Known about the structure:
The protein is α/β, with parallel strands linked by helices. Helix content is about 40%, strand content about 20%. The chain has helices at about 5-15, 30-45, 70-90, 105-115, 130-135, 140-145, 180-195, 205-210, 215-230, 250-260, 280-290; strands at about 20-25, 45-55, 95-100, 120-125, 150-155, 170-175, 195-205, 240-245, 265-270, 295-300. Strands 3-2-1-4-5-10-9-6-7-8 form a 10-stranded mixed beta sheet, with helices on both faces. Strand 1 (about 20-25), helix 2 and strand 2 (about 45-55) form a beta-alpha-beta unit. It is elongated.
Amino acid sequence: MRTPTKNNFENRTLATPERILVATDLTDTDCLVPHAIAQAIASGARVTLVHALPPSEIVPLDGAAIPYVDKATIVRDVKIFLLGVAQQFVLQGIACDAAVRDGFAGDVIREELGRTNATRVIMGTHGRGKLGQLTLGSVAHDLVAKVPVPVFVVGPHARDSVQHVTPRRILHPVSLMGDYSESLHLALEIARTYQAELTLLHVLDPDLNQNIDPERTVSWAKNALNALIPDATSRVSPVHTRVVSGNLAEEILKAAVQTNADWIVLGADGRSRSWFAPESAACKMIATAPCPILTLRHEPSLTEPANLEEVHFTSPL
């Protein structure tokens, strides 16, 4: 069992990482770098830029941002490019290094996490060309399912705006079932770090809500959310609660727009196979969210129910 002291330490470590890994396909640095700089400044982190050189047989000859022909030349050119990007961090007083590795993007990122002991990954979901789609198009979904650190994902609808670089409003969907405490505490600690307003959202299953007394269900959920809010003396910014009924992904995205959220902090159930399927709520949110999403996978305790097909945020009522 984790002690409160250990939990608090881990929450602070994840909220203010000492090492950040930025995974880039070389076409997305303009949207990733502002986020990485802001987060590194907020936590005093060192940054590592990493680019994976995929096996040549999977790269279409006309689709690469940089044609992978002469391997030595390509490695040199990529390193020069990344060193130029690194200078943007150095000019801000941030220590930054770069790594170019052979292999599939997911494997390379996991290896670099182990090598650098980074406790946050920043990445996009799609590059601007076929190369980006090949290397990073589905990697984000794979990583949030397998790595034990937060993954900050800048989706296609969030990549062209820098207004979300420093979060002032954070939305955190809460399941009210299972071990949701890790992502909740992470959201609270991030809100404290950035002095941001935090909205806790619970989405009720509409069918379940109709079969049980709707008023009682909503009242229970509101009381449960309010019970999660820390004492006012330990907070620096307001914490709000919302309870709605409807489609999970749609309601979370709607709440993000209504609250003008800068970040969505999303807990990922590490035991759920369906959570990461292409048609899942998580993938829909990553693909369409108007702001970046910070995901944190949690491993269930041995005492949690083992319904592997259960969506992480659904109400237990």
